[in-house]
Amino acid sequence: MRKLLILCLFVLGLSFTLFNFKGLASQGEFDSIVLDFREDVPAAQITEQVSAIAQQYNLNPRLNSEFSLSDHVYIVKGDRQLLKTLKKSALAKQTEYIEPNYIYKALEVPNDPDYGKQWNLRSINVEQAWEDTKGKDITVAVIDTGVTRVPDLKDTKFVKGYNFITDQIEASDDIGHGTHVAGTIAQSTNNGYGVAGIAYEASIMPIKVLDMGGGTVADIAEGIRFAADNGADVINMSLGGSGESQIMEEAVNYAHAKGVVVVAAAGNESRNSASYPARYPYAIGVAALDAAGQKASYSNFGAGVDISAPGGLTDGENTAGGILQETINYETGLPTFASFQGTSMAAPHVAGVAALVKAAGVKEPDEIINVLKQSARVVQEDPLNHFGAGHLDAAGAVKLAIKGQITFRDFFRWLRDHGYLNPVFWIDGGAIALLPKIAMVLGSYLLAWFLRNYFPFAWSWSLTSGLVAGSSGLFFLRGFYIFDLPQWPFRFMGSSIPELGNTIQGSTALNPFFASVLIPLVLIALLLGHPKWKWLAIGSALGVASCLAVSAVVSPAVWGLGTGVLARGFLIANALLCYGLAHLASKPSEQTA
Amino acid sequence: MSITVTGSIERKGFGPGTWAIVSEDKTYELKNAPEELRKAGLKAKVKGSVRDDVMTFAMIGPVLEVESFETISSD
Hints:
CATH architecture of chain B: Beta Barrel
CATH class of chain B: Mainly Beta
Radius of gyration of chain A: 30 Å
Largest interface: A-B, 38 and 25 residues
Shape of chain A: flat
Number of helices of chain B: 0
Distance between the termini of chain A: 25 Å
Number of domains of chain A: 3
Largest sheet of chain B: 5 strands, mixed, barrel
Mean pLDDT of chain B: 93
Structural class of chain B: mainly beta
CATH class of the largest domain in chain A: Alpha Beta
Largest sheet of chain A: 8 strands, parallel
Mean pLDDT of chain A: 85
Order of helices and strands of chain B: EEEEEE
CATH topology of the largest domain in chain A: Rossmann fold
Number of strands of chain B: 6
Oligomer: heterodimer
Number of strands of chain A: 17
């Protein structure tokens, strides 16, 4: 069983590595090749060479421009194959270089005059995503305070919505929140006015369920069902509350079953765990980032946060760090450009990108969610789950969607469905840096195997437990979060001995007292007399040795010692001490084994 | 069920803004706060019911529907 588990983890780790390497190859486009002849080659010889190429490869070399003659720069039509042939030919010796004539494209920069203030759109790489899609033929339902057609929504397509407060079709906004949210999703863009939106060729379905004092779960649930029944592809809910509601959860499940992606804000209480409806299994919970990419101070985190996106941070009169869209002024009812902050602003970024992904050809909501999560820019150190799968990346998501290669799709679905079988659990698939953990476990086994060459001993349950406890702990438990409970117990169980010292605080820097030879030393001193338990101590010493050695290479952060040579030296020295300790402790076993 | 919350009134800047009462350990979003209560910095004792069936765009904490209140002089 153990071997099977290790094997599975190994295969999984290997696949992850291969998967990640794929994107590294250079994928530039070109349809011609640049030949730059050496300056010291006489002009007559160059002319000769050029006509030789023309004959041999049936090409028509030409000067790049009238200024190219003195530099001897020629262009020939050709692909990778010809490039390879030319580089290998005798001609290569007479040139300074032969290289692809890459085609550089200008990014899609819209002409909206205040686009420059939208740091949030550039931070999600939307310009690159626009090269492929702008969300055409996709409908995004904005379940909010309604949407008013302000001037910068004039070119945006609208479909029929509904007002559940007054029970009528007209669903305009009297508050100024829903209009702002709709702007982030699909503000009229490239119209020479105002600001831009993410999926500006998508249609908005305005659904009003909130007024100034909020809205009831009954109205919101009906709003969700209305959207699902009337052809919405994506639902955005920049709203939340603390009450669990059956009617609302059922509505979210209904929408999901009808193929709708449901996006919800994580909440602004700066607390551990998202609010409802973000925490429902079939809603993507979105945490907010500030302009520096940090968690915005107000944003909820932990259980229920699936991904993070710009939500902005405003400071009184200084609103430059907020999210700028056109909305209406609550006091006057007139259109105004306003910078808002909140997870309310983060959610529509995800909804907009979900629309782009669907327009790029990914249809199933689960697949769209997986594309969003897999393409997110991973935050390496996120022990409290501030960011979920990472920072939203529109360009990455659209690229992945177009590739249509959703590797691990079924694996993620399995994780998700099994996690949600028990509604109080929530799993963050990206919480653990898997490869170092696998290296630690394998490394500890390797050390044990090595030691066995000197002093033959039998593999035992106690030795294995020691190896696991010392090297990695039950690391998969770190991805578990239980709503409304403190996060540290699972982190504690999911930690190896060296990591215990930094578990409670949720820091990733190792505590030098725990990440050293001290604990194995105490364990061996206490257990050496016992024939069975001593192997637990020896196993833990080997495990710790492996954990420290891998940490020294991968992430040598130790309190008080920094992350440099000092920390590395400390970790390696202690790893060697641990191994030496295990070596000494297992010596007498020659007689007993 | 009614509860009484003592704390200070704050204006929270989410969307067009909302009113909150911040007690020592919790922030409540005020629903239907009367005009006299809408003063940032005011210390008050608010009686009201927590509306678990209400959701809001501000999402700053449980929604407290104001039934009555009294201001507390700060000195």
